[in-house]
Specification:
Length: 457
């Protein structure tokens, strides 16, 4: 009905309809999700960010929590705090368990409520990955992986606890099994962890036990592939292997692990007895593909289009480790840079839509290189034709990692901690944290009120 018609019928003019602010739901606040939120910080949208934890975690330094160099709070920051200045964003700690593409809602569980529908106009799934045991889930109880802050603390407990146990163990034959650490998977996490444990036993722990010699600890790094750090050029991979061996790590390549149980691992028909086996071999994507009921790749990652959306659903973006995108014939790797760049692209794409600007063309990953650290003061770096294996590469690694932490306070704290550890050999958090088991409930009949107890005297 036009205004003229209203005047003719002597009706009041219609109330102007205020267009609803578009609702953007971001699931996951890792590298991908945080990057989306930041790209939308000034956008005229209402963002709901859901994460099952209350923190953004800097996973590349998680191995330093597991090896007691850094404390958990030095590599993670509360999501609320990071985004406190971003007024268009509401943060909820909730676990997403499903998506209804037709109704355009995600379902989220919080501690007191289940399957709460959260409506969206645009949805970004950035739920990352978890440990993958290549179909051998029976390995999981004996070979924990490293993915969350809880995993890092649990591994730190386990590693430190074995030294305490060995110190208390009368039977010296048991020391060997206790002080054998096996890492399954010689990718960056396996290499970094193995080198860090080897360095820890030879520095911080060296002189602090009386009955055991921590430097006799055996650290074994296994991989079924022919080299460590598969994606790196051969010369860098060989340099990393040589460095590991100098640090005292045994590297066994070319044979897959056949069995992992409470007594250790079996590889190439040989058993390596160990009480601490760490899984650093593989990851599996989050169940985002199942929630959406769309096509996934063999690993279970959601196959997305070059604009990072799900085929048939231009309002749903999937980014980071849980997405599968082929560029120039190769699938993009599950690394932080891919998640960051995809997150930024998805945020920009939503901004363009809501501000009615044309889309920016397909996503293109710009590979800035890869690096891995092999003990303090040594890293390898590969970027285009540049190949470095030295202290210089370590400085580049340290600078990039410090600058990539989410908050200035974390950057300063990690920098000072590294400096302190370098100078004194003391680690930031060599603490075993275990909750004491609940005492068995007292027999109510045996408990008397204090007055009664006094009267009985
Ligand atoms: C130990 C380790 C070391 C690494 N080192 C490097 C490195 O040196 N360089 C590098 O480039 N990459 C490294 N990576 C890989 C890199 O961290 C990942 O590629 C990157 O984190 C992927 O980002 P993402 O946003 O996809 O997922 P993530 O960063 O994993 O974030 C996923 C988020 O989603 C949340 N989430 C998951 N499921 C749900 C749910 N159902 N509901 C709500 N929230 C949910 C999680 O809590 C998490 O906050 C490392 C990874 C690990 C585990």
């Amino acid at each position: 009905m036009s205004n003229d018609t209203n005047a003719y019928l002597n009706l009041p003019p219609p109330t102007p309809v205020t267009p609803r602010v578009p609702r953007v739901v971001i699931v996951g606040c890792g590298f991908g999700g945080l990057s989306v939120a930041r790209a939308l910080r000034r956008a005229p949208v209402q963002i709901t960010l859901l994460d099952r934890t209350n923190h953004h975690l800097f996973q590349p330094l998680l191995y330093q929590v597991a090896t007691a160099v850094l404390a958990p709070g030095q590599i993670a920051a509360p999501i609320r705090e990071i985004l406190s200045g971003q007024k268009n964003t509401t943060v909820h700690m909730a676990e997403v368990v499903g998506v209804d593409r037709t109704r355009r809602v995600v379902f989220a569980n919080s501690p007191d409520r289940e399957r709460v529908p959260v409506p969206y106009d645009n949805l970004v799934l950035a739920t990352g990955a978890t440990h993958g045991y290549f179909g051998h889930d029976e390995f999981a109880p004996f070979a924990p992986g490293l993915k969350t802050l809880g995993d890092g603390v649990e591994l730190r407990n386990r590693i430190l606890q074995t030294f305490e146990q060995a110190e208390a163990e009368e039977d010296v034959r048991a020391h060997r099994d206790l002080l054998t650490f096996v890492l399954v998977g010689a990718g960056p996490t396996g290499v970094e962890m193995a080198a860090a444990i080897a360095y820890m036993v030879r520095t911080s722990l060296r002189a602090q036990f009386r009955r055991i010699d921590p430097t006799t600890a055996r650290i074994v790094l296994l991989d079924r592939g022919p080299k460590v750090l598969g994606p790196f050029a051969d010369e860098l991979s060989q340099a990393a292997k040589a460095r590991l061996e100098r640090l005292g790590v045994e590297v066994q390549l070319g044979q897959g692990v056949e069995k992992i149980d409470a007594e250790g691992v079996v590889v190439g028909g040989q058993r390596i007895a160990s009480k601490t086996v760490i899984w650093t071999a593989g990851v599996a994507p989050s169940p985002a593909g199942k929630w959406l009921g769309v096509e996934t790749d063999r690993a279970g990652r959601v196959k997305i289009q070059p604009d990072l959306t799900v085929p048939g659903n231009p309002e749903i973006f999937v980014v980071g480790d849980t997405a599968s995108l082929v560029q120039d014939g190769n699938p993009l790797p599950g690394v932080a840079q891919v998640a960051l760049q995809q997150g930024h692209y998805a945020g920009e794409a939503i901004l363009r839509r809501v501000t009615r600007r044309p889309s920016a063309g397909p996503f293109r990953y710009s590979d800035r290189g890869i690096m891995a650290v092999v003990g303090p003061g040594y890293a390898i770096l590969q970027s285009g034709k540049l190949r470095l294996k030295s202290l210089v590469a370590w400085f580049a690694w340290a600078l990039i990692h410090i600058m990539s932490l989410a908050q200035p306070g974390l950057r300063l704290s990690v920098f000072l901690q590294w400096l302190w550890t370098f100078v004194t050999g003391q680690r930031g958090s060599r603490i075993i944290i275990r909750r004491r088991p609940e005492p068995t409930a007292p027999n109510p009949a045996a408990v008397r009120p204090p007055s009664e107890a006094r009267a009985a005297k």
